[in-house]
Amino acid sequence: MLQRLYARTIALAAGPNAIWALVAVAFAESSCFPIPPDILLIPMMLARPRDAWRLAALCTIASVTGGLVGYAIGYFVFDAIGRPLLQFYHAMGSYDALKAAFDRWGVWIIIAKGMTPIPYKLVTITCGVVHFDLWAFVGASIVSRSLRFFLLAAILRRFGAAAREFIERRLTLVTTLFAAALVGGFLALRYL
Questions:
Q1: DSSP 8-class letter at 116
Q2: Counting CB atoms within 10 angstroms of each CB, which of 44, 53, 144, 145 has the fewest?
Q3: Which are the contacts of 125, defined by CB distance < 8 A and separation ≥ 6?
Q4: CA dist 15 → 12, 59, 160 (Å)
Q5: What separation, in Å, do the N-terminal and C-terminal C-alpha atoms of the chain show?
Q6: How many of the other CB atoms lie within 10 Å of CB of 101?
Q7: Where are the domains of the chain?
Q8: Nearest to 29 by CA among 40, 18, 44, 19
Q9: What is the pTM of this model?
């Protein structure tokens, strides 16, 4: 079953609508969608190794643009919903500590978290919640998302055939490791 799903994803990645799907997923993942764009980006880069740089650029642009929507959600919705909830649970101290951390280390937090499997929407929404400087947010988002997607492009461009062979031979291992990294990202966010 996993092999069939992989074959279908590779076929979609090589298909005529793949780029639009990638852009939509990268945009939505930065504000509301739970699945990272890597699910499409990696197979697309494997299916079209010559387009790896262009795909990384499109994914970066869509992700940063979607991040602005996530920022807006945090910025405009927090006072109406988030603040009353924090006050009800007497957790404003946690909010104040988070704001202080972003005031001091915000750019580095965005860069570090934007390169990990931790869902990027959590970073974008949080930046809006704490009213982090919009231009610093955009700049740090461009850096972090570019590093993530262009590093992936460089690795897959350099080791594309070998990477594809490795993935196809060890598909269960690769998907298990990816799922573990994704769950680990959620757990790290929860407990750190």
A1: S
A2: 53
A3: 31, 70, 71, 73, 74
A4: 5, 17, 18
A5: 36
A6: 13
A7: 2-191
A8: 40
A9: 0.75
